[in-house]
Amino acid sequence: MTEIVSTQIQLQSRPDGWPTPDDFRTASFTYGDLEPGQVRVRNEFVSVDPYMRGRMNDVRSYVAPYALGETITGGAIGRVVESAADDVPVGAAALHQHGWADVVQADASTFRFVPETPGLPLSLRLHILGMTGLTAYVGLTEIAHLKEGDTVFVSGAAGAVGTAVGQIARLLGAKRVIGSAGSAEKVALLTEKYGYDAAFDYKDGDVRGQLADAAPEGIDVFFDNVGGDHLEAALDAFNDGGRAALCGAIAGYNTTEKAAGPDNMANIITRGLTLKGFTLAAYLHLAPEFQEKMTGWFAAGEIAYDETIVDGIENTVDAFLQMMKGANTGKMLVRV
Amino acid sequence: MTEIVSTQIQLQSRPDGWPTPDDFRTASFTYGDLEPGQVRVRNEFVSVDPYMRGRMNDVRSYVAPYALGETITGGAIGRVVESAADDVPVGAAALHQHGWADVVQADASTFRFVPETPGLPLSLRLHILGMTGLTAYVGLTEIAHLKEGDTVFVSGAAGAVGTAVGQIARLLGAKRVIGSAGSAEKVALLTEKYGYDAAFDYKDGDVRGQLADAAPEGIDVFFDNVGGDHLEAALDAFNDGGRAALCGAIAGYNTTEKAAGPDNMANIITRGLTLKGFTLAAYLHLAPEFQEKMTGWFAAGEIAYDETIVDGIENTVDAFLQMMKGANTGKMLVRV
Predict the structure, then answer these.
(1) Distance CA A225, CA B44 (A)
(2) What ipTM was predicted for this assembly?
(3) Which residue of B has its CA nearest to A250?
(4) Which of residues 251-290 of A touch B (CB under 8 A)?
(5) Domain boundaries defined on chain A
(6) Is B109:B35 a contact under the CB 8 Å cutoff?
(7) Do B270 and A277 touch (CB under 8 A)?
């Protein structure tokens, strides 16, 4: 047993609009010897996720705001390097929520020790095999009630959740899958790698028109990661009885003024639409069902994924900011 | 058998914004002798409803637009004055959708001959015992999934649907029922006659603030007849897991510019809200269940109602316009 210095990223001030590096600070902790029952985990990958932006505000939400001066918590995965827990061997893969740190030390009960599949990197537990994949699955099944033959529109389709949504929608029987993304390269990837039937670059403008062109027969399901003009476009494109799973609204996360909502809310009534927002906390009971299906799809070679990797815990804030600006394709990760 | 002259109101031009009397015309028909299977019905009451405004536009909706130069169809009730249908006696009460006319003549199959309850006026079939009551019931049960102990907010609560919603919500176990209306008199009526726990006048402004004051513990269910600032206020007041039944959006029916939507749509995600729009066509199978419950409540003296009555078929357009401006308390009807 030895002392170890841990580098951790903390929130220093609440961002007003777009976060800046000054809103964060890098802190060093020295962990002493392990207490009985504790393990020490060296992270291999740390996750940066859009929902974290919400936690940086001091407002009511489904998770408590981050406290100023404390380490940013969130998904990460690493390996046990020392153990004072009887049943946890050194080398075990440890998934946890201790967040933006290179090394963490805590009671073994705060980690989930996960089996490893040869050939699959640990990082997949932070996205397609983890919460991100589950988010896509829950949104399509429990929230939007996807049916065979549905036409599905996914906003922010080249992100971590979006790439999963398109593939899962197809595997669950969608007839046509349409995605939006923020660059020509991402748009190409959607149709060439992720099985989207049509995709468009929302930065070309006229999201309404582009969606209408891509969905001449309308849409039945909308999986929204963006909000704003994307939700408005979907409300115009919906067929009667359409269902929206509202998962994220990244378009508004860094605005200081509240943006007006869609100008076509009345379509919700006349077309009998359902808009349902969700966060994963209420749906974790679906994780086993999801794991079983996703593992099978993965084994069958049905699932593609991308990772955009930034190296070094000291670059975590930069990775987070780049992700908020859409610099990632697939999952944005920090490799420690 | 004799010929008869029928006075009918037709749509002459599509209103741009608020309808004016010039958008309508009064036509006279002469019906000849009855064909076999036909009945002649003299209307007693003709219904004017908010949804009719939507049908005056030439846009996609859940029902086809009214055709120019044809009689405005919609709910009405009268009595058979001549019958060439074997099983339909003169004097039978006839509920139908032939609309804005004093006398109509058509195949008996286009009428529903309804039993009468002594002491209950026929007009109730056009509201609390008819589609209006069913709308309230369906919205609370199938759409908003009202649970015992819920706090319910109803916009446009003094209208035909709203007065029904408040009472049904209470009878189904709501803990607290809050309503908005457009005058001090209506607000008083809500708490004194319709069992609302709290009510406010939206014309006083600050719907958000007034709702927050009336619902210090938040709302669980929102039954919306108004849209606009009312929906926005509800999105701020919702507790986690809240459910909105979007039934009407009268605030926007007569605007020529599309109004911006709520600025707080992100609450749908963070609070796990469900917004579900509906029109009655998909829920008519619930009519028998509703009729049974409502008849029981009525017999037990649990149901209050109001009618705002305008006399004369020639005043139907005026009644419609007054209703759109909120001049009615409870159901607006034309007595023929």
Answers:
(1) 53
(2) 0.90
(3) B266
(4) 252, 258-279, 282
(5) 4-127+307-335, 131-281
(6) no
(7) yes
Please list, in sequence order, all residues whose beta carbon lies within 8 angstroms of the beta carbon of residue A151, skipping any fewer than 6 positions away: A174, A175, A176, A177, A178, A215, A217, A218, A219, A220, A221, A239
Put simply, the answer to whether B279 touches A270 (Cβ < 8 Å) is yes
β-pairing, A274-277 with A238-246?
Answer: parallel
User: Which CATH architecture describes the domain B131-281?
Assistant: 3-Layer(aba) Sandwich (3.40)
- To test the contact with chain A by mutation, choose from B225, B257, B269 the residue with the greatest count of A C-beta atoms within 10 A, namely B269
The angle formed by the CA atoms of residues B1, B7 and B10, to the nearest 5 degrees, is 135
Which residues from chain A sit within 8 angstroms of residue B256, using beta carbons? none
> Taking chain A (336 residues) in consecutive chunks of 10 residues, what is each chunk's mean pLDDT?
90 94 95 96 96 87 84 97 96 97 97 90 95 96 98 96 97 98 96 96 96 98 95 97 93 80 93 96 94 93 95 96 91 96
**B277 vs A54, A259, A271: nearest CB:** A271
pLDDT tens-digit map of B242-261: 999 999 888 777 777 788 89
Question: Hey, is the C-beta of A212 within 8 angstroms of any chain B C-beta?
Answer: no
Q: Which fold has domain B4-126+307-335?
A: Quinone Oxidoreductase; Chain A, domain 1 (3.90.180)
**Among the CATH numbers 3.90.650.10, 3.90.180.10, 3.50.50.60, 3.40.50.620, which is that of A4-127+307-335?**
3.90.180.10
